[in-house]
Each structure stands twice: as C-alpha cells, then as structure tokens.
Design brief:
By secondary structure, the chain is of the alpha+beta class. The chain has three domains: 4-85, 3-Layer(aba) Sandwich (Rossmann fold); 132-201, ATP-grasp fold, A domain (Dna Ligase, domain 1); 207-442, ATP-grasp fold, B domain (D-amino Acid Aminotransferase, Chain A, domain 1, 2-Layer Sandwich), CATH 3.30.470.20. It is built from 15 helices and 20 strands. It has helices at residues 11-23, 40-43, 63-73, 89-97, 107-114, 116-125, 141-151, 177-192, 249-266, 296-303, 307-315, 394-407, 417-424, 427-430, 438-442; strands at residues 4-7, 27-33, 47-52, 77-79, 101-102, 155-159, 168-171, 197-201, 207-215, 221-233, 236-242, 270-279, 282-289, 332-339, 351-352, 356-357, 364-368, 375-376, 383-391, 409-410. It has an eight-stranded antiparallel sheet. Helix 4 (89-97) packs antiparallel against helix 5 (107-114) and helix 12 (394-407) packs antiparallel against helix 13 (417-424). The structure holds adenosine-5'-diphosphate. Residues 131, 156, 162-165, 200-203, 208, 232, 235, 275, 277, 286-287, 436 line the site of adenosine-5'-diphosphate.
Length: 446
Amino acid sequence: MFEKVLIANRGEIALRVQRACNEMGIRTVAVHSTADEDAMHVRLADETVCIGPPPAKDSYLNVSAILTAATITNADAIHPGYGFLSENADFAAMVEEHGFTFIGPEPDHIRMMGNKISAKKAVFEVGIPVVPGSDGPVSGDEEALDVAEDIGFPVLIKAAAGGGGKGMIRAGNSQELPDALKMAKGEALAAFGDDEVYIEKFLHGPRHIEVQVLADSFGNVVHLGERDCSLQRRHQKILEEAPSPALNDDQRQRIGRVVVDAIRELGYRSVGTFEFLYQDGEFYFIEMNTRLQVEHPVTEMICGLDLVREMVRIAAGTPLGYGQEDIHLSGHAIECRINAENPETFLPSPGRISDYHSPGGLGVRVDSALYSGYLVPNHYDSLIAKLIVHGANRNECLMRLRRALGEYVIGGLETSIPFHLRLMADPDFVNGDYDIHWLERFMGEA
Ligand code: ADP
C-alpha cells in the first residue's frame, strides 16, 4: 500500500480524498494556490506545497508544479479528484513516467473516453446501445443535413471534447442547422481548443441515468447500481439520487450486467461511470466518465463502500476481494449540490462565511471544506458543499432532507439552499416524476 498520496485538487473533494487516505493510514500532501492558503484541505493535510497563483491554469492545472511537489515530498501516488487534471490522459501518463502511481484508470482509457466520438464507437463495439447519430465527426453543412435527415429532427450538435454541458446546440429543423453547427463549433473551440463536433438525435423527455462501476487490474468488475441525475440546469447536475425512481430492480440488474461485461471487455480499471439517457424503457449511452464523480456519495450511502478507498486499493494493485453477489443496495440517498450563488439568478456569490452550522443526525452527511470565517475565493467552481441524506426509502429520505436543509446555516453569502427547499415542496419532484428538461421548466426558463 502507498505511504504517501498527493492530492492534486482543492475544496471538498481534496478533503474527501484526504479523509479516505487518513483512515487507510496513508499520509497526505495537499497542493494549493496562494488563494487557498487558509483552505481546509491545506489545514488538515500532513504536508502542503504551494504550487502557484490563484488562476487554476497557473496552479491546479500546472502539471510541472504538481510533479515537482510530488518529487520533493516523496509521494508514492497522485489522486486527481474530479475536474482539473482528472481526465487529462497526458497528465496521467506523465505521472506514471515520473515514477508515481496515478490513482485512476490507464491513460489510454482516459484518452479513448475523453473524445466522445471514440467513446461511443468503443462502447458500441462491446454491445452498449448509443444515442442514434453521426458515426464520426461532422464538419460541413451538407454532411450535417444528411445525418440529421437520416435520424430525424430535432438534433443536438455536440463537441467531441465536450464537458460541463458546453458546446451543445439544438437544431429543430434544416433551416436552423447551419447556424447551430457554426455555433457549436465556435463554442467547442473556445471551451476546449478543438472544434470537432458530432450529431445526435435530440431526445424529448429522457432521464439521465448513470451506472457506477468498480474494476480492478485482475478482471474483477462490479456495478454499484445507478444514479438518477436528471435534475439539471443548462446540462449541469443540481441534485442526484440513488436509486432512480424510474427503474425497478430487474431493469437495474440488467443494465448493470451489460455495463460490467463492457467494462471487462475494454479491460478498464478503477472507478468509472457509464452515462445514459433513458427513455421509453431504453438506455442510450452518451458518455463515460473515467474518474470519481461529484455525485459519488449517493452510491456510497446505498452500497456502504468508500469509493475513494476502493480507487486507492485498486491503484495499489489490490484485488477487489468481493463480487457482484456481495453488493447489496439499501435504502435511498439524495445529494443536493450547494453552490455559492444567488438562488434566483444563479449568479456566483463568493465571499466570507460569517457563521456556519452544518446539519447532523441519523443519515445526514455533509461533504464540504467550509468553516466559519473562511473566504470563498472567486477563482474556482461555485460548489461549496454537498448535503447527502440517506433514508430507508425515498419518502424518509425526502423528509430528512427537508429537515437537514432547514438546519443548514451558511451566513455571509448567498447559497442555493433556498432553491433546494423550494424543490422539496414540488409535487412532481416529490413523486419522482421528472426528466432532464423538467428543472428548467420548474425555474421558468424553458
Ligand atoms: P457533458 O459532457 O458536457 O456533461 P453529456 O453528453 O454528458 O455532456 O450531456 C450532458 C447532458 O446534456 C445530459 O445529461 C442531457 O441532459 C443532455 N443531453 C446530452 N445529449 C442529449 C441528447 N441526445 N438529447 C437530449 N439531451 C441530451
């Protein structure tokens, strides 16, 4: 097992990884920008290294500074968290070339899944159904029209390098197509430095359902059920739950088995998530995430496994030691993403935390790096806390979530807590009756 792990991240996820390492008896190294000198992940680490100024490109994305930090602290392995360098195949390869272990999948798998066109091809070849669309990249107007007429309008033009809901434009008919193509390419180039786009059928009312897997280096693979992440604003997840209110156990095991077989055939290792759109009883793959996800705690709450611990064990070459028959999903879990933002306009609201009280009690978990007096910097993502609640069933989970949201005090800045409380009172949400377009209608944005 590793003796020392460097965590190449910040905020709640850096703390999350640190906690798992601590419990495994592994020492931790925190890296941080000058804006994060007083951050919780820095305060609680065994060792710390400042890797640059506030902008992420100069610090948390600064590969040479991170590798230098790992060298001078004599770390054995690097955990990338999510975001930043977590899905950068070149970074993963460089980590290994410098003699450290990358706590994640092999660079080739990250690369394959990082391009959504090659990801769709790869999973289709191992038997996974995908959203109908172009076979590869689409560049010209005529080519786009051929594909769109073949699959039928409306269509979605998507960036091959996409992420974070960027570079995705809908075209309702052939007149809208050329402009949509141009816009999607422009957005893709600006966001990812790559204007490669492809076309998919735009699905009218699907749910976003994703399957979590764990795979070791010896061909042992298990799935941990699904998460429903249909509550989205601008293609960004706001609240996630497990299990999905839309699936029964038969459907769950069926899609789980399909994904496990695919993962085994691909020879993939570590945690991974297959994301699907689910409509009229059918699953359509959209992408694979080759990292720990923001919403992983809802899975942990229903399966009782620590996914970070499992990632670390797998990276250290330890076999899983259990099989699918040992995985038991129990109860229901929901995660609310709490952002430092205005609950009406969703504009970011960084600032100093004047007072802080986090909820507690049975079945309540808070993943956050906040404390009273902490200054939330304006350089990074606005996610400041995740409130995760577990109950014996969905109804108990909702009651507990309302109670916990009501207890949560984050003073000094605006947060999305009032928004979540409003959501908890909506009959459609309470009934689990929603799809990926529902939240924008709820917010009056559709
Ligand atoms: P990203 O990597 O940017 O998150 P995804 O491909 O994972 O992009 O899609 C993000 C979200 O966009 C999905 O969860 C879904 O809400 C919406 N979306 C993606 N593809 C389609 C589609 N073909 N039809 C309708 N909505 C889609």
